[in-house]
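Standup notes
- HV: blocked on the assembly model, inputs below
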Amino acid sequence: MGKQMTEMLKGTLEGIVLAFLTGNPAYGYEITAWLRSQGFTDIAEGTVYALLVRIEKNGLVDVEKRPSEKGPPRKVYSLNADGEKHLEEFWTTWGFLAERLENLRTEGK
Amino acid sequence: MGKQMTEMLKGTLEGIVLAFLTGNPAYGYEITAWLRSQGFTDIAEGTVYALLVRIEKNGLVDVEKRPSEKGPPRKVYSLNADGEKHLEEFWTTWGFLAERLENLRTEGK
DNA sequence: GCCACTACTCAGCGCTACTATGTACTGGTA
DNA sequence: TACCAGTACATAGTAGCGCTGAGTAGTGGC
């Protein structure tokens, strides 16, 4: 992946995953596959699992273990109330940044 | 500053500064002041100077030392050809990310 | 028996922004 | 004269996040 993208994903990848989880519980492997289908082709598996561990530790998601037909049991993550609040703050922060950048891109300064 | 913003600035702050520098040579103190006027009220001075050192080392800017009426001499940075190319790539990367996020925000998935 | 696919884990690294502090010059003021 | 605010730059150390690379484990097909 481009170095620029790697740096830019810091902070935003978490928001992307939280947004995906909204009303849509999912497990790690599934999330990785979805990200890749969205064009984030080079997101490493390890990155996603580490992110999931982190948001679980931070209490933004609830986790449920479910047996899989193929392979090891899945850890299904769903957004909880704290996660929703965190996601809202994420959108606020993102909105601010996106607005600034859009201004910079179109008019310059 | 919020932790979210801190993380989200990674990668984008450099682009913001490069964009500001386009056709508008400036020095560190001035850039810091401008960023604060744009709402990035908590950007630390040290952060900007470190960033300027980095982009100079990476050959994205040319530097000229000019005496100041008040205080130490200024280091005036201006975007060079490599910097412009880098900025273009930044906009491409940003554009991709912004599009994905805008989709996520409006429709959800 | 081997390989591909599913599914999760973890140690170590690189990069960027932040914290905190220091240097140095000018001008006002008490 | 001493002090302080404002201008201007520099830097060592820290935290956080995504990446690399490797490993473990279960299922099914050839």
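- HV (later): unblocked. The mean pLDDT of chain A is 94. Residues 1, 6-7, 9-11, 13-14, 42-44, 46-47, 50-51, 54, 68-73 of chain A lie near DNA strand D (CB under 10 Å from a C1').
- Next: hand off to the docking folks.
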